[in-house]
Amino acid sequence: MMALRLSALAGLLLSGWLLFQKASGSITYLVGCGAGSGCANVLGSRWSQWFLVPVTALSLLMYAALLFFTFKPRRLPLLAIGTCLAGAALWFGIIQAFILHSFCPWCLGAHMIGLICAILIFRGHGSRQAGPLKPGLLAGLGATALLVAGQVFGPVPDTHQETQVVLEKEPEAGATPAKAENGPVHSRGEGRKVTFLGNKQYNIDTLPHIGDAKAPHVLVKYYDYACNACRDLHEDLNALMQKHPGKFCIIVLPCPINKACNPNVPAHIPDHANACELAKLALACWRTDPSSFTEVHHALFARPVLDLPKAMEVVKPLMKKPLTADALNDPWIAEVLAADSEDYKRINFTINNAKAGEANYLMPKLLVGGTRMLHGVTKTREILFGAIEQEFKLTGP
């Protein structure tokens, strides 16, 4: 019984610490890329709650009950708790391995403790000579089924965040006379310009975009081709444009979560493989043949994530004009990526000062209007549509 008691105490303490991470705001329910760790991805997912109650709170109660019954042993509740702990470990193992594709060592540790407790319970109280097993097993299985059903069919927390962001005006002059004459790359040259974030201008005609450059409503998206949440937003925005044909132009600016081309990614956030190469290829395709960019942009979101040789094979038949041998070395590409990275840094700094939480590093980011920015991906497409339609006073077709 002492081994079971110590295991229950370890599970109680670990569950309490994980619950504190959630309750303190260190980990949120926001869905996106760049949260930092496997634990942030797991504990920040919709599967980390049950009817909006953190599952770590349920785990805490379960281990507290188990600890109590180690001092006042009762066979039925112990068998029920052991069955439930084993079932929960199996369920959340499946979630991490096959749905989230991300693992939290601390969560796995808590589930391992649960399995140890279950084994100890069944070794000590699972003998048929001590009484029937069925009531305890059924109670535990019923509790596990209730957990699964609540997570699958129950309410889902908000998975995006909205903030108001105002950036300081960009300097007109660069480090060289040529840049001083041309200005910031996002607003450089002649063409239709729009202002977001209070003071930042974007030239629709010179920047990669999807939709008609003359459309009445403009959005700006910062994204990463290797980010699944960015891919989800890409599909949602395509659906929005189909719902409101001719109404939207979306400026798309790659901001890879990879320190090789985005030095402003914090050290604790893992790099996305191939993100820089795909971003450079997309920009090269835009510069070479803007008319083919929409198809190229869609193709580069393919899953599994493409490496550069495969991506080149995919986009080649989509281009009306072939890429030159040195297309990816165009200095403009490096300028755009540097500017996107600088925006990432400035936005994060502004949000951090406003204490907006983990949205600091979350991708994608969507500029909806004026200073309004959406971080992450909404839990339903309808929520995204509603936010954008409200901003531009649109109604359904």
Structure characterization notes:
With 397 residues, this protein is α+β, with helices and mostly antiparallel strands. It has 2 domains: 2-153, Up-down Bundle (de novo design (two linked rop proteins)), CATH 1.20.1440; 161-392, Glutaredoxin. The chain is built from 13 helices and 10 strands. The chain has helices at residues 2-23, 38-43, 55-71, 75-100, 105-125, 134-153, 177-182, 228-243, 275-288, 293-299, 308-315, 331-353, 381-392, and strands at residues 49-50, 53-54, 160-164, 193-196, 200-203, 209-211, 217-223, 248-254, 365-369, 372-376. The strands form 3 sheets. A 6-stranded mixed β-sheet has the order 3-10-9-7-8-6. A hairpin with a 3-residue loop joins β4 and β5 (200-203). The chain is elongated. The N and C termini lie far apart (67 Å). 41% of the residues are buried. The model is unreliable at 173-180 (pLDDT under 50). The chain crosses the membrane at residues 49-71, 78-100, 106-124, 136-154. InterPro entries: Thioredoxin-like_fold, Thioredoxin-like_sf, VKOR, VKOR/LTO1, VKOR_sf. This is Vitamin K epoxide reductase family protein. It comes from Luteolibacter luteus.
